[in-house]
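fwd from M.: "can u put these together and see what the complex looks like"

so here's what she sent:
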Amino acid sequence: MKPAQFEYHYALNVERACELLASLEDAKVLAGGQSLMPLLNFRLARPAHLVDINPMGHHVARIYERDGGVAVQALARQAEVEDSELVARVCPLLSAAVRLVAHRVIRNRGTVCGSLAHADPASELPAVLLALGGHVIARSARGDRQIEAGDFFRGVFETALAPDELLLEAWFPAFSGKFAVLEESRRHGDFALAGVVRADDRLALFGVAPTPVLADPEDPARGLEPSGDLEATPEFRLHLVGVLARKAMSA
Amino acid sequence: MKVNKVFDEVTCEHRRLLSDYLRHDRGLTGTHVGCEHGVCGCCTVLFDGKPVRSCLILAWQGVGHEITTIEGIAPPGGPLHPVQQAFHECHALQCGFCTPGFVMAVIGLLKQYPNPTDEQIEEGIAGNLCRCTGYASIRRAVRRAAELSAK
């Protein structure tokens, strides 16, 4: 299980990354690689080009306060967000959620923006962005575009990013209300069978639909049609949604 | 790329994984390859001092960085690294396949929490699989390694 052939490009700055993304057909951005590399190793993804943004280093790895919230740039590793005092103060919900992402060794490399751009339906951070009503900034040679969480997630592994756009930054509003991030998985660090993110009276669900979805805390499973697999039947996932939502709302 | 403080040019194919580069191009077969998708933890190495999965990084991404493998944590023929010593004392290995990965992950864990709680130990080793299921001894070894490191 090794990656198929691709052409490797490395971008020393954002301009170069955007130039590459604009000119190449079938290119993927490589940031932390903790979701993309397994897909390449299994040849589930065979992009013609990889644009490695890691050489940009600290220029796009900042975690900073902006517009009454916290912005996390493209190369800020999940472990850095986990350890950030700023995040803990401004948006403790994000600190709590990022601890549930895989394992520390993975978080040493994986990025918050990468999780959002990858848009795995079972991942925590997209649901956090949605529950809090955050946004992302997409950069391309054409300019910057702000995309609200509600418009960003389009389907399984599908976002509103255009092929020439780089997810430069994610913004999470400050939040000091009641919150809970709960999930059920087979083992610690595994993909969630179902999960919920509560921010006061807003409730987002993950792992039970093609994208994270906002739900009515009174009737969280309404309208859901989760898929079933070896690990959980659709009925079990609906059951989990009810239990997790109830726990989260009374947290 | 610097591996265990030794510099060498990277000339392999771009699609070569760091894990394969270490084993095949550098002959450092102490880094084991299990699942090749980041689940088993066998291939864990230190990347600029932090544990990462070498099967989820391309060899070329190591250029300009310092990699430490299991071969590089203690001098050859010299005393064992405190984590190795603890694994030895507590019998925290059986077949040994997962051991290099555990040792590298535990080095990272003890850097983060020099005196870890039981919960931090559990979380710290949760990303590594031992199919001999020697987890009880491994947990003991982490506690012992913390003691040895403190000395």
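replying to her w this: Chain B has five helices and five strands.
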